[in-house]
Amino acid sequence: MRAGEESDDRADAERVSARWPARLHVVTGKGGTGKTTVAAALALALASGGRRTLLVEVESRQGIAQLFGTDPLPYEERPIATARRGGEVRALAVDSEEALLEYLDMFYKLGAAGRALRKLGAIDFATTIAPGLRDVLLTGKVKEATTRTADKRRVYDAVVLDAPPTGRIGRFLNVTAETARLAKVGPIKTQSEGVAALLRSPITAVHVVTLLEEMPVQETIDAIADLTKLRIPVGRLILNATRPALLAGKVTQAELRRGLAAAGLPTDRATVAGLHSEARDQLIRRNLEETLRAELVELGLPLVELPLLTEGVDRVGLDMIADTLLDAPT
């Protein structure tokens, strides 16, 4: 690598660190807002300049594999994409059963005995009678990856978690604090306290993805209020799939008729009336979107607007979103 390229890489890495300083980036949003797409693009952005990021999912949907066109992810960290200037994105699908086996082996040295428990159905039984245990295991694995070191250096510059939707994000992230409160002693209490502390530290930022639609915006507002009450740091509001305004203001039928005539298009009454109705609907939608945007601005959080990908989400689209996120103001 030439000196100039090394300098560019350092500049990229420094810019990423300055604009996105957290090490654990939790991405949530109402279902259908594109949170998995945003999480994947953010992982690519954070890997710029030769950095290494880990992209994690915890809902067994295999959404990451679908986005990148790979086989379903195992419970194993593996390279999934290369970012610009040689950065690497690895991915992991956290399975609560595998996480429990890992936990039992780590803290109780059960090894093969732990695997025997799976055959007996004891693991399903444990996570059923203590539903919060599942989320403790999931967030515990994320915490381990975020803080892991090798040769006295962090293994990952950043970890991006494609988290549960806004409707249950507070409960998901706070379950470790509840478990730490209920468990009096032992490894579960220690691990829960460690995860709870990480999630409330400057190392963590929860980014909320939304659309300019009433239900997603309301869920966003509610989720931010919940996270603030729980003292979990909120990062950016990410406004996804935005579209430019098609009209500057009201358009009369006469103006439409003149425009159609100038373009050599039909100007019959039905055509003009149909276009006028569509224009009116566009203005109503635009006014609603501006009202919703104002409600989001009032929250006082950094706001990032991402464009609608009209051609669908592919690697080119992910890179486009990654560039927009990378250039987002602080």
UniProtKB/TrEMBL annotation:
Organism listed in the record: Plantactinospora soyae
InterPro entries, alphabetized: ArsA/GET3_ATPase-like (IPR025723), ATPase_ArsA/GET3 (IPR016300), P-loop_NTPase (IPR027417)
Pfam family, one: ArsA_ATPase
Sequence ranges assigned to domain ArsA/GET3 Anion-transporting ATPase-like in this UniProt record: 25-180
Recorded coiled-coil stretches: none
Protein name as annotated: Anion-transporting ArsA/GET3 family ATPase
TM stretches of this protein: none
Gene Ontology MF terms in the entry: ATP binding; ATP hydrolysis activity
